[in-house]
Design goal:
The complex is a heterodimer of chains A (127) and B (256).
Chain A (H helix, E strand, L loop, with lengths): L2 E3 L10 H32 L1 H10 L3 H29 L7 H29 L1
Helix pairs in contact in A: 1-2, 1-3, 3-4
Chain B lengths: L21 E10 L9 E10 L4 H12 L18 E4 L2 E4 L14 E4 L6 E3 L2 E2 L2 H9 L19 H5 L18 H5 L6 H11 L7 H8 L13 H5 L6 H14 L3
Parallel strand pairs in B: 1-5
Antiparallel strand pairs in B: 1-2, 3-4, 3-5, 6-7
């Protein structure tokens, strides 16, 4: 006997390519919002250097420090994965090795992030 | 009645007539019938299936023995006609090429219609937008000049150039696995590009430039974000993303 269950379509179970695309989109949007704020706070210099100094000083707290860590994480992934996407489209064997290249991207990202985290967090929390 | 001739193949008595192992599976099918309700829902059946059975056999068992209203397309049932592409456990597959024993039978097997095309009933979708894109890339040989008296000669190297994309059976597993196509139904989609590739890189065809121009549209190849869902979904193993990349490069260099 069939029994009726609650309706819910499932998420498409794509593999590395789909999820790296999702991550690329999300990091892209994150970077866009950073640039928006960045252009606004930098242009404050034209309004008044004192206002600019005040705004930049307000960034010097642990919360913003963690935000900067996240920003660098997003930019590094977006940059390395961007190179991978260019290779997928323009290197003859790109589509064949796209998965290996993604692990290369993740590995490179991890190395950069470990090194950066140590230096950055010791600045943020070390005073 | 004449007696059948003895088999030419010698089989040891313990090889022949072995029982095919059976196992229980739970099949969950996403049902939708606009004449009854605007909401889709899941129906579930417990079935005893053989180790040689495919998802299509399970659907047949449901339709023939449990609920005749379950609707799905299938014609040849052997991976050639491309009618029974559906989402099996979240991935686009042909029901006739997916063996139940290769799936995790400890959990229910989820069967849904392919995504991005309007569902008409249960697993049947409206394929018209898909075929519309296919027609737009002119999937037929176009040659200029006089027809040759004999055959149109082609070397095996020239034939190899587009061999991969001749395998397409137009099942729409690739196009309906594409995240870009789900949100932008205007996108030509992988299948149309694969079939354009098949003629663009055919040395006998003279309309490659026209097809490249069609695919240079903003809804053409540049919509491809190389998620590789299409390459993984293709039941014929066509390297779809690679074919799309080759078309992108041909558009940029105008060299085929």
């Amino acid at each position: 006997m069939p029994k009726t269950l609650t309706p819910a379509g499932t998420l498409y179970r794509g593999r590395e390519g789909q999820w790296s695309w999702v991550a690329h989109r999300i990091t892209g949007v994150v970077i866009f919002f950073f640039l928006l704020v960045h252009v606004l706070d930098t242009s404050l210099v034209r309004v008044s250097p004192e206002a600019y100094d005040a705004v930049i000083a307000s960034y010097k707290n642990p919360l913003m420090g963690l935000g900067e860590l996240g920003l660098v994480a997003a930019i590094m992934f977006h940059a390395f994965n961007g190179i991978r996407l260019i290779l997928v489209d323009f290197w003859k064997d790109g589509p064949k090795y796209h998965r290996q290249m993604l692990w290369g991207v993740v590995g490179l990202w991890a190395v950069v992030m470990i090194a950066f985290s140590i230096r950055h967090l010791s600045h943020v929390f070390g005073g | 009645m004449e007696k059948e001739p003895a088999s030419k193949v010698e089989l040891a008595p313990d090889v022949a007539g072995g029982e095919v192992p059976t196992f229980d599976v739970t099949l969950k099918v996403r049902r939708y019938n606009p004449e009854v309700s605007d909401e889709a829902h899941w129906d579930e059946w417990k079935l005893t299936m053989y180790g040689t059975d495919r998802v299509l056999d399970a659907l047949h068992k449901v339709k023939w023995e449990h609920d005749g209203s379950v609707s799905f397309r299938r014609s040849c049932a052997h991976g050639v006609c491309g009618s029974d592409a559906m989402r099996i456990n979240g991935r686009n597959r042909l029901a006739c090429k997916t063996l139940l024993k290769d799936l995790d039978t400890s959990k229910p097997i989820l069967v849904e219609p392919i995504k991005g095309l309007p569902v008409e009933k249960d697993l049947i979708v409206d394929m018209e937008p898909f075929f519309q894109s296919y027609r737009e890339i002119m999937p037929f040989l176009i040659s200029k000049g006089h027809e040759p008296a004999k055959e149109r000669l082609q070397s095996s190297e020239e034939r190899d150039r587009y061999d991969d994309t001749t395998k397409c059976i137009l099942c729409a597993a690739c196009t309906s696995s594409c995240p870009v196509f789900w949100t932008d139904g205007q996108y030509f989609g992988p299948a149309a590009i694969v079939n354009a590739h098949r003629f663009i890189f055919d040395s006998r065809d003279d309309a490659g430039d026209m097809r490249l121009e069609i695919l240079n549209d903003k809804e053409g190849v540049w919509r491809c974000r190389t998620t590789f869902n299409c390459s993984e979904a293709c039941p014929r193993g066509i390297q779809v993303t690679k074919a799309i990349s080759e078309v992108k490069q041909a558009i940029l260099t105008r060299k085929v």
